[in-house]
Inverse folding.
């Protein structure tokens, strides 16, 4: 005997594609924000990221910033500041 | 942000991050993998990580970071527009064995055999509610994307779990709440589901002897359905894809689903839903989130309240991250507590709140305190901002408010056992509106 059965899955959302921002031609002379998203006890890693990048790219300004609040929280003021004063961002570390 | 960005992620979560990036419309977001974990790793070791390779691509991490910011974009990177995924309405016709295999391999199940959701069975299930099959119930996110679903979709999952039509209002209320009982978190959270009000007896839920064991059809199947809702309506529950709990949690098997034993509540002890503002004659489902359950009786303490305090002192303090304590008390235990003059549930919560203390030195060491309460202190949020200025031996309350402690009465009066754990109440929802 054969059966036809109903699909148990819900409807996935429609996704809107967002074009990525144009890339830089070089890091020289640029300001790059390094953002610590505040995953617990990862500050060593993010600070060391800034140190090794500074050693390798001495003509680049790296600005270290903590994101406000916990790793769950949005920080729109910081994003606005980066857009106004920075050329690129490195966001670390997700987990 | 509108500027080039490189995201850095622990190696085991790179694929998860790519899925989230896809969900928000940037499937080609540049994500660099680093050895995991980076938490509590000394600085020299972090430096070694950073000068090494991305564990997945085996390319230098620093090169990948810089390339993320400088490598020109492709046509796919700058694509705009909308992407829609369409689901078929039905599968088959095929044999029962083939459909069982297909559902299993498609991750539509909890890996146990299911009842095949034929149109006829779903139609019978829908007799359990007055709502139209095409009515939108809500959305649920168990994995990384929230799905929208109808009454019929909930009924399909109820059929699969083996539910009876009279359980459907409870199941619809759970679905409409949007509460995922299976979550993506690496922390292996579990949920507990508690039903109050007249529907408990109408559908023959167990609130007495063995209520938390797999020995009652309604308790078992309502809990199982909650899992299927998350898998199919919440797009979750696939290890290393949409589920990341490192060890998982045995309580997920049916989410400790039970009914409160309202009939055995002494005068003054209100049913849980009444404590949350519902009328006694209303039927309500409540959710709790936590990790574990401890059974207690054999302590040296002769007074139940003191023994309960020992358990309360094991729970993570309720800082800026949500946490709490739930106690599941047998009616015999409640009788003993009333003899100790705890004449209401609230009086017991007040006692625990006042007497469960810890020094600040210890408080600040909790992982989730560092992650949530310390940032709150730095934002001048009280009481954490003041606590940060106090000496480490200052005692503070483990539970900041009595309502972070939940008291539930369940059991068959065969022994004065009680259990409890690190559970906090996440919400209570009306069942009656789904009848």
């Amino acid at each position: 005997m054969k059966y036809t059965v109903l699909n148990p899955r819900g409807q996935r959302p429609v996704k809107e594609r967002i074009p990525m921002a144009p890339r830089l031609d070089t890091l020289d002379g640029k300001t790059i924000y390094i953002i610590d998203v505040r995953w617990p006890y990862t500050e060593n890693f993010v600070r060391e990221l800034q140190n090794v990048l500074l050693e390798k790219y001495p003509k680049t300004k790296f600005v270290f910033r903590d994101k406000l609040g916990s790793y769950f929280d949005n920080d729109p003021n910081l994003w606005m500041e980066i857009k106004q004063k920075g050329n690129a961002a490195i966001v670390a570390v997700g987990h | 942000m509108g500027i080039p960005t490189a995201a850095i992620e622990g190696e085991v979560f790179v694929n998860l991050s790519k899925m989230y990036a896809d969900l928000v419309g940037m499937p080609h977001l540049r994500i660099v993998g680093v050895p995991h974990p980076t938490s509590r790793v000394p600085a020299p070791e972090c430096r070694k990580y950073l000068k090494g390779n991305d564990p997945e691509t085996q390319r230098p991490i620093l090169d990948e970071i810089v390339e993320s910011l400088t490598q020109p974009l492709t046509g796919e990177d700058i694509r705009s527009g909308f992407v829609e995924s369409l689901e078929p309405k039905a599968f088959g016709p095929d044999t029962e064995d083939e459909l069982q295999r297909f559902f299993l391999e498609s991750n539509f199940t909890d890996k146990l055999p299911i009842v095949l959701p034929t149109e006829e069975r779903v139609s019978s299930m829908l007799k359990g509610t007055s709502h139209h099959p095409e009515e939108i119930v809500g959305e649920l996110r168990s994995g990384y994307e929230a799905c929208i679903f109808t009454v019929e979709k909930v009924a399909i999952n109820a059929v699969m779990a083996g539910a009876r039509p009279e359980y459907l209002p409870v199941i619809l209320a759970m679905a409409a709440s949007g509460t995922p009982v299976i979550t993506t978190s690496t922390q292996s959270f579990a949920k507990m589901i508690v039903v109050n009000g007249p529907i408990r007896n109408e559908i023959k839920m167990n609130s007495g002897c063995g209520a938390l064991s797999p020995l009652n059809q309604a308790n078992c199947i309502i809990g199982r359905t909650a899992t299927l809702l998350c898998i199919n309506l919440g797009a979750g529950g696939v290890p290393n894809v949409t589920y990341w709990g490192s060890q998982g949690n045995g309580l997920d098997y049916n989410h400790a689903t039970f009914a409160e034993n309202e009939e055995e509540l002494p005068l003054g002890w209100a049913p849980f839903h009444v404590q949350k503002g519902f009328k006694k004659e209303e039927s309500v489902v409540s959710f709790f989130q936590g990790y574990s359950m401890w059974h207690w009786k054999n302590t040296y303490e002769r007074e139940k309240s003191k023994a309960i305090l020992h358990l309360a002192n094991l729970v993570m303090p309720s800082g800026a991250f949500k946490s709490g304590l739930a106690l599941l008390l047998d009616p015999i235990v409640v009788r003993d507590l009333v003899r100790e003059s705890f004449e209401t549930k609230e009086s017991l919560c007040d006692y625990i709140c006042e007497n469960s203390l810890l020094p600040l030195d210890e408080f600040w060491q909790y992982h989730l305190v560092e992650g949530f309460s310390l940032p709150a202190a730095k934002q001048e949020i009280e009481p954490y901002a003041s606590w940060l200025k106090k000496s480490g031996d200052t005692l503070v309350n483990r539970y900041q408010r009595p309502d972070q402690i939940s008291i539930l009465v369940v059991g068959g009066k065969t022994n004065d056992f009680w259990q409890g754990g690190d559970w906090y109440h996440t919400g209570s929802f009306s069942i009656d509106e789904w009848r």
User: Anything to note?
Assistant: Chain B has a mean pLDDT of 94. The first strand of chain B starts at residue 5 and ends at 10. The radius of gyration of chain B is 25 Å. Chain B touches chain A through 97 residues (CB under 8 Å).
